[in-house]
Amino acid sequence: MKISIVTATYNRSDLLFRLYQSILENSKSYSDIEWFIMDDGSSEKLDNKVKKWRREANFPIFLFSQENSGKMASINALISKTSGDIIIEMDDDDYFCPHVFSKIVFDYQKILNNDKVYGVIYEKEFSQNNRNIKSGLKGKICTLYDLHYKEKEDFDMALTFKGDYRRKFSYELENGEKFVTEARMYYKMDQGMDGFYIEAEPLMICEYRSDGYTRGIEKLFKNNPYGYYVFFKEVFSYSQKGILFSKRLYNIKHFILFGYLTKHHFLEMCSSVHGFNKILFTILYIPGRVSSKRRFGDVS
């Protein structure tokens, strides 16, 4: 089985080298891999570094470049170029644990003939405090949607996909924005499928950096409200049966927040929610608008 690794990068060549080293080390025990890099408009050019890596590596490395368009557009452009049976999206500030490629292929043998299972979930390990969140879900098959909204037990997930299925989907961006939550695509992938096989063992080492997406969440929300608004609107169209009450509240509060940022009004938004969600939405709408205005200021 060939493993395709795709990475979007922007002015992080030092961190990208660390990722390269982890791929190179893993390739010594399993070399049927390919690595695709998209330089998303960096000021520092990667050509010479990648040429050196190609001379050292026993696997192909493909480098592409584009004007700065964001991580999601970069990944979209790379996915269609892959040929692997397995696809892994790796951030440029993460790197692989040792000896994982052979394990990934071994794990995919378990789901190879199950067309309703489209990937394997592993765990992310964090280098700052070596935190390794354990999960009682190991060995189960579950959709991302159910994991996010119906399971009390949670852990930081590293997703891997069957290549043929992943290539059917892309990140949908709205209104010229550069970011959308990955979950929007994942939940569409879940439809009609049983989901992922959960391995829940460490696949990669991760760091949350000061210049990363998760650190600048307020700015991220304000700069990309339309994608988030459509995402939460779509969530209400999926089955609401069995959703934890806390998650239901989370969805409604954020739907109101992004409705405020995108200047959608009550009646238009209310038509997107039904049943018990409509009751909660109606109750929370005014407090949510007030809270959103305090948080982000007047957007009218």
Could you please describe the fold and organization of this structure?
By secondary structure, this protein is of the alpha/beta class. It folds into two domains: 204 residues, Spore Coat Polysaccharide Biosynthesis Protein SpsA, Chain A (Alpha-Beta Complex), CATH 3.90.550.10; 80 residues, no CATH class. It is built from twelve helices and nine strands. Strands 1, 2, 3, 4, 5, 6, 7, 8 and 9 form a nine-stranded mixed sheet that branches. Strand 1, helix 1 and strand 2 form a beta-alpha-beta unit. Helix 9 runs antiparallel to helix 10 and helix 10 packs across helix 12. The protein starts with a strand and ends with a helix. The model has no long low-confidence stretch (mean pLDDT 93).
Given helix and strand content, the structural type is alpha/beta
Radius of gyration: 20 Å
Strand content: 15-25%
Average residue pLDDT: 93
- Backbone shape: globular
Please give the share of residues in helix. 40-55%
Question: Could you give a short account of the major beta sheet?
Answer: 9 strands, mixed
Number of domains: 2
Cα distance spanning the termini: 53 Å
Residue stretches low in confidence (pLDDT < 50, at least 5 long) are none
Question: Would you identify the CATH architecture of the largest domain?
Answer: Alpha-Beta Complex
Indicate the CATH topology of the largest domain.
Answer: Spore Coat Polysaccharide Biosynthesis Protein SpsA, Chain A
Compute the number of strand runs.
9
CATH-wise, what's the superfamily of the largest domain? Spore Coat Polysaccharide Biosynthesis Protein SpsA, Chain A
How would you spell out the order of helices and strands?
A: EHEHEHEEHEEHEHHEHHHHH
- Total count of helical runs of at least 4 residues: 12
Which class of the largest domain in CATH terms?
Alpha Beta
